[in-house]
Design a protein that fits this description.
The protein has 298 residues and is of the alpha/beta class. The protein has eleven helices and twelve strands. The longest helix has 28 residues.
Length: 298
């Protein structure tokens, strides 16, 4: 068994699909299927339980993937250190971004970084903040963006955005005439939230709980524009960061300042504290720390 086979195995397990794994690795689906089959024959165990189009790791597969991740990570550390010694200034960077963050802050930053380091390839993974934290901690991602403070131990960070959440509601809503509103006044409202894998989902529910009520959630989404459209259709209220509110159609949606208490939205770049960082990762952290300082999103 070699490193390439282990990488194929890990990607299939992560994607839970041979087809998606092949696309992510830029190889053909038959090639990756053949590799997994050869591994199963070599080891004398079944690694994936194939049920129609769905696949799941078997007990043997779980054990092998866990060990393979450690071996591949160690191999990547060796390769990265050797590259740094040769001062190649090239590499591959895996960045995790929550969907609502990427479009607002990073197109120009990524473009400028690529212009300065054209030999560094960048792969973006769009997931909720909880998933980004977990994947940075596990080593599946080199760096990521998350809502601070992070919940996973062993992560370092620097902050680049400090904002608050605003309330979005339909212009005909009885509360729309207000300028400032408290959480307690929202007890009887229907909420449109981000999905559970987003940190804001838990933050908003916790803020409601502190005011003595459980929010009535009618819809959850991973896309802020879908959430705002639900509000524009008068189906519920939403709480979104100030940056996102700047892009909302205010002819169809009223935006109120949330106070008593406010809900902070602090974004930070995160990375593993105890893990060797490649040249690409170190330069990304250095570059974004400088470029994102005092950023004023459009």
């Amino acid at each position: 068994m070699d490193i390439r086979q282990m990488q194929y195995l890990i990607e299939v397990a992560r994607q839970q699909s041979f087809t998606k794994a092949a696309e992510a690795l830029y190889i053909t689906q038959p090639s990756i299927s053949k590799t997994i089959r050869q591994m199963e024959e070599e080891l004398g165990v079944v690694l994936f339980d194939r049920v129609g189009k769905r696949i799941e790791l078997t007990d043997a597969g779980v054990i092998l993937v866990k060990q393979a991740q450690q071996i591949v990570t160690a191999f990547q550390h060796v390769s990265a250190e050797l590259d740094d010694l040769r001062n190649l200034k090239q590499g591959h960077l895996r960045i995790g971004l929550p969907p609502m963050v990427g479009a607002s802050f990073f197109p120009k930053v990524i473009g400028d970084f690529h212009a300065q380091y054209p030999q560094i390839t960048i792969q973006l993974f769009e997931d909720g903040g909880k998933k980004v934290e977990a994947d940075v901690a596990s080593g599946e991602l080199d760096v990521g963006v998350a809502v601070l403070p992070v919940q996973v131990e062993g992560l370092k960070s620097f902050s680049f955005v400090e904002e608050k959440l605003n309330l979005l509601l339909h212009p005909s809503h009885p509360l729309a005439s207000k300028k400032i509103i408290s959480m307690a006044e929202l007890e009887q409202q229907s909420f449109v939230l981000f999905r559970e894998d987003f940190v804001l989902h838990d933050r908003i529910i916790a803020a409601c709980a502190r005011e003595g009520f459980q929010p009535r959630v009618i819809y959850e989404s991973s896309q802020w524009d879908m959430i705002s459209e639900m509000v524009a259709a008068n189906l519920g209220i939403a709480l979104l960061p100030e940056t996102i509110c700047r892009d909302v159609d205010q002819s169809r949606i009223s935006i109120l300042e949330l106070a008593s208490p406010s809900i902070p939205w602090n974004l930070g770049m995160i990375w593993r504290e105890d893990r060797y960082l490649s040249f690409a990762a170190r330069e990304w952290i250095r570059y974004t720390r400088q470029e994102l300082k005092g950023i004023d999103a459009p």
